């Protein structure tokens, strides 16, 4: 078990097909699409070498650019900051390079099979991430209302936590057909997935996460709901998600996105960076040895986009921060969608008005982290009186909320994520500097571990991020509010442009906030592949009949469409 509050169903049959994070909304096997020897498709030879703008050098943009390059197109990547987006790995000034902090994505579930394709392709290694009560986590401390409980397994926690676990299991079964959906996803039983989900979308689109709990007889106890919010399941407390749509949470638990997480050895930013430099073995039009880096002057992407507008011939014209103006037959926009409202001057004609409404209604979650480097993993020392670890992965209702202990061996320097928070908990840190944040965090942790002097082990300055304060993000990740399903559907299905007026085609939306699994790298990759299919189709290309793409099978598995009356 990896969670303080376990998932509803244990799976004894490890030979079952793996769940994938395609989820219930659009049950398409992206991992099979990528693995097929026929490839993702081809474009007419007359279009080879044609430039396509890719705006945003995060994972979605780099994956899209890489696959377009393999088809024979020439992606022109624009990036306002550094390649990687929210796959951002940083070091500590004055410390050895092996000490790294993951400011954005840091843990990835095995159900992210499309993402794993690229991790494997570029030769990266993963290892278990030390979540609460995970097998890789030596011990966990749950500290609520000033009372701490030490646990090496879930069985070590008091009975009330098991009661909360049972309540969550019952809530999922009674309100969301958890076992049936989980089984259908594992078996890739598309008709059954669509049957269950169609009913739940209509029933639950207007419901919050908290309301879903309150409607369950199993969670009639406020104390149980409170503990569940503070401790949660998988990665910790989820009360910051309580105002969000329950559909968002069901997607996570159905696809096991919050379980068995792994981290990328050396840092997640290596993935987009390696794709940027990678020379694919199979490539059309371009000579062998071509990479995205080599297609860009100086090996660097173009600078930030400052203006997007349509010009004669239904082209997309891009102005960048250097004043360069280029016009393209097609473009993919992968940056956070709010950039289209604030940082980039846009023509209204870029998108249909309903899509502009969906972009404007996007709800982003705030998130902050702070890391410090330490001389060694001292938390593995044993308390002489109790025989327990002197410090543990910590979940608490104090300001820090979640504290993660990250080491690379007992005799090597290590890293502590002193605090990882979301939403209101993140906003509490916003006015404070990195050092001010650290002082508050050390005080809180000192109250939980009065015998431990964390400060004496710190060997460098802290590093921190508040994603809501990052100028090219203004938030960590999207999370739909009740009633937002229709907006999300418009954004996700935007790649199907035959359904749009002719003068609204040619620019494609991608990125995890366009996906059904916002906040997960898997969604960034899947929407990148949707956009690649859209661009290929836009240029008159086709997929191989033996490997239909997401647009080819769209009518069979299209997301549930709710009435817009």
Task: Report on this structure.
The structure is a single chain. The strands form six sheets. Strands 7-6-16-17-18-15-19 form a seven-stranded mixed beta sheet, sandwiched between helices. The two termini are 45 Å apart. The chain contains 16 helices and 21 strands. Mean pLDDT is 94; it is low at 1-16. With 565 residues, the protein is α/β, with parallel strands linked by helices. The longest helix is centred in the first third of the chain and has 18 residues, at 159-176. Helix 2 (59-71) packs parallel to helix 10, helix 4 packs across helix 8 and helix 11 (353-360) crosses helix 14 (485-492). A hairpin with a 4-residue loop joins strand 10 (315-320) and strand 11 (325-328). Helices cover 28% and strands 16% of the residues.
Would you summarize the structure shown here?
The chain has 16 helices and 21 strands.
Secondary structure elements and pairings:
Elements: H1 30-35, E1 51-55, H2 59-71, E2 74-78, E3 89-91, E4 100-102, H3 113-121, E5 126-128, E6 140-144, E7 147-151, H4 159-176, H5 178-186, H6 190-204, H7 209-214, H8 222-231, H9 246-254, E8 262-264, H10 270-277, E9 305-311, E10 315-320, E11 325-328, E12 331-333, E13 345-346, H11 353-360, E14 364-365, E15 367-374, E16 393-396, E17 402-406, E18 414-422, H12 423-427, H13 434-448, E19 463-466, E20 477-478, H14 485-492, E21 507-509, H15 521-538, H16 554-557
Parallel strand pairs: 1-2, 1-12, 6-16, 9-13, 12-21
Antiparallel strand pairs: 3-4, 5-8, 6-7, 9-10, 10-11, 14-20, 15-18, 15-19, 16-17, 17-18
């Amino acid at each position: 078990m990896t969670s303080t509050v376990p998932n509803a169903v244990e799976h004894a049959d490890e030979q079952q097909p793996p769940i994938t994070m395609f989820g219930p909304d659009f049950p398409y096997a992206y991992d099979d699409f990528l693995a097929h020897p026929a490839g993702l498709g081809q474009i007419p030879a007359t279009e080879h070498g044609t430039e396509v703008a890719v705006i945003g050098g995060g994972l979605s943009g780099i994956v899209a650019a890489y696959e377009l390059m393999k088809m024979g197109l020439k992606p022109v990547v624009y990036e306002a900051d550094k390649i990687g987006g929210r796959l951002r790995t940083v070091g500590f000034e004055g410390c050895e390079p092996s000490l790294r902090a993951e400011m954005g994505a840091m843990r990835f579930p095995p159900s992210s099979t499309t993402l794993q394709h690229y991790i494997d392709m570029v030769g990266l290694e993963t290892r278990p991430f030390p979540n609460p009560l995970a097998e890789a986590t030596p011990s966990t401390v749950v500290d609520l209302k000033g009372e701490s409980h030490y646990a090496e397994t879930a069985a070590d926690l008091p009975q009330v936590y098991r009661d909360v676990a049972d309540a969550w299991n019952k809530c999922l079964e009674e309100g969301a057909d958890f076992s049936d959906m989980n089984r259908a996803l594992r078996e890739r039983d598309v008709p059954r997935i669509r049957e269950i989900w169609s009913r739940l979308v209509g029933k639950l689109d207007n419901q919050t996460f908290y309301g879903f709990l309150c409607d369950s007889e199993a969670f009639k106890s406020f104390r149980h709901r409170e503990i569940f919010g503070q401790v949660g399941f998988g990665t910790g407390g989820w009360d910051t998600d309580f105002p969000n749509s329950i559909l968002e949470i069901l997607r996570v638990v159905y696809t096991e996105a919050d379980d068995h997480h792994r981290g990328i050895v050396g840092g997640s930013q290596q993935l987009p960076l390696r794709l940027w430099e990678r020379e694919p073995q199979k490539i059309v039009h371009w000579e062998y040895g071509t990479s995205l880096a080599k297609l860009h002057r100086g090996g660097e992407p173009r600078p930030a986009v400052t203006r997007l507008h349509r010009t004669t011939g239904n082209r997309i014209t891009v102005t960048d921060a250097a004043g360069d103006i280029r016009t393209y037959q097609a473009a993919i926009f992968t940056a956070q969608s709010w950039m289209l409202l604030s940082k980039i001057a846009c023509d209204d004609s870029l998108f249909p008005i309903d899509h502009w409404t969906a972009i404007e209604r996007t709800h982003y979650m705030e998130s902050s982290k702070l890391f410090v480097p330490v001389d060694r993993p001292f938390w593995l020392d044993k308390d002489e009186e109790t025989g327990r670890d002197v410090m543990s992965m910590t979940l608490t209702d104090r300001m820090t909320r979640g504290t993660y202990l990250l080491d690379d061996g007992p005799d090597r320097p290590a890293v502590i994520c002193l605090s990882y928070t979301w939403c209101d908990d993140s906003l509490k840190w916003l006015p404070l500097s990195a050092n001010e944040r650290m002082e508050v965090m050390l005080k809180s942790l000192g109250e939980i571990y009065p015998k431990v002097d964390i400060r004496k082990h710190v060997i460098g300055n802290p590093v921190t991020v508040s994603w809501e304060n990052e100028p090219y993000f203004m938030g960590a990740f999207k999370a739909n509010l009740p009633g937002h399903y229709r907006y999300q559907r418009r954004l996700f299905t935007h790649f199907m442009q035959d359904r749009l007026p002719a003068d609204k085609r040619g620019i494609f939306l991608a990125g995890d906030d366009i996906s059904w699994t916002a906040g997960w790298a898997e969604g960034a990759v899947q929407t990148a592949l949707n956009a690649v299919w859209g661009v290929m189709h836009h240029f008159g290309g086709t997929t191989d009949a033996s490997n239909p793409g997401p647009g080819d099978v769209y009518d069979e598995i299209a997301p549930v469409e709710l009435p817009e009356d």
